[in-house]
Amino acid sequence: MSLKLFSNNASTTLSAAITSGATTLSVTSGAGTLFPNPAAGQNFTFTLIKSGTPTTFEICLCTARSGDTFSTIVRAQEGTTALAWNAGDTVALLPTAAGLTGFTQFDDLQKQLGNYAPDTGAANAYVVTLSPALAANVVGMPIRWIAGHTNTGASTFNGLALVLPSGAALSGGEIVGGALCTSVYDGARFQLTESAYASAASVSALASGIGATFVGYVPTSFGYAPSIVPLSVFGLASAAVYAARLEGNIATSGVGTMATVITPNTGSITAIGAGIASNSGSGNQVAQDYGNVANMSGISLWNGIAQQIRYTGTFSMPAGATSISLQMSVSSGTFSVAAGMNLVLTRVA
């Protein structure tokens, strides 16, 4: 789509007659500077008006101007007819119906149709083409899209890496076919800021001092997959020590074990001491030590039974890290959050 150009009080007359098929015209000497000077991909609309007969007019586009010469013009716009014009007829940059209709109005802002399109790519290689197409990716611009496929691992978006806001690559299950997603270009790649999983499961820390507590909530019926990243926490303090508690209820299919991994946006977290992982279901109670809060594993799963789980542990953030992503996976079958789940982080050092 071409960019429209405008100028104030641009009105003059033809310096010479033109035929109905002419694609250039010249205006009175020195008056050309009243009009815009389009570059590639730009144009302005002007109107030719018969001298003494203002009801006879023709709307045209100019895509190139050199001094007083409109060197490339497109005739008979907006339902008008290409006519022959005489020297002395008016050439003016005036508002037109199509020009005004083309401006963004309030309902256009509400709909935001310009940054939405369906995915036409494949699983792990998502392709979204906006209309009008972008000349280049714009840093910070959100692109909304309906995913055509569920991802099974690391993915791309319009040919560039698609990552979590933490910078971590996708691992599978973060995007669900048919779900509405949002990607934002960060200058080098696209960040998946909203999806069937990630949209309802991120929280920004509002404080960073000792005792500051952040609660991330994974809502009821939060999808299912063998492996998902259900929660991200942003704005944490670099090199700080946090006590972590993840607790809630899950429903599973298949018998196996469940593991949880906490990944910072840079470096690796360091576990401090041991923690406890436990679950209960159908009268069964399992509790065991685990040595690394970054890799909390060994939870036993009970096929088809809603289970309450709880992990606790303490870890330190690496220098330079300010956010974490929490990934949950099962060794067999699938799982879903049955009645909500909380991740509570409290800074202790």
Feature tags:
7-stranded mixed β-sheet; 2 helices; single chain; mainly beta; 349 residues; Jelly Rolls
* Residue share in helix: under 10%
The percentage of residues in β strands lies in over 45%
The Cα radius of gyration reads 31 Å
Query: What's the CATH class label of the largest domain?
Result: Mainly Beta
Strands, total number: 25
Q: What do these coordinates show?
A:
Residues 197-201, 220-224 and 276-298 have low confidence and may be disordered. Helix content is 3%, strand content 46%. It folds into three domains: 3-101; 108-198, no CATH class; 202-347, Jelly Rolls, CATH 2.60.120. The strands form four sheets. Strands 1, 2, 3, 4, 5, 6 and 7 form a seven-stranded mixed β-sheet that branches. Strands 15, 17, 19, 20, 21, 23 and 25 form a seven-stranded antiparallel β-sheet that branches. A six-stranded mixed β-sheet has the order 8-10-11-13-12-9, with no helix packed on it. It has two helices and 25 strands. The protein has 349 residues and is mainly β. It has helices at 97-101, 106-111; strands at residues 3-4, 11-13, 25-26, 42-50, 53-66, 69-77, 90-92, 125-126, 142-146, 155-157, 160-163, 180-185, 190-194, 202-204, 213-218, 227-234, 241-253, 257-264, 270-271, 275-281, 284-290, 295-300, 306-316, 323-330, 334-347.
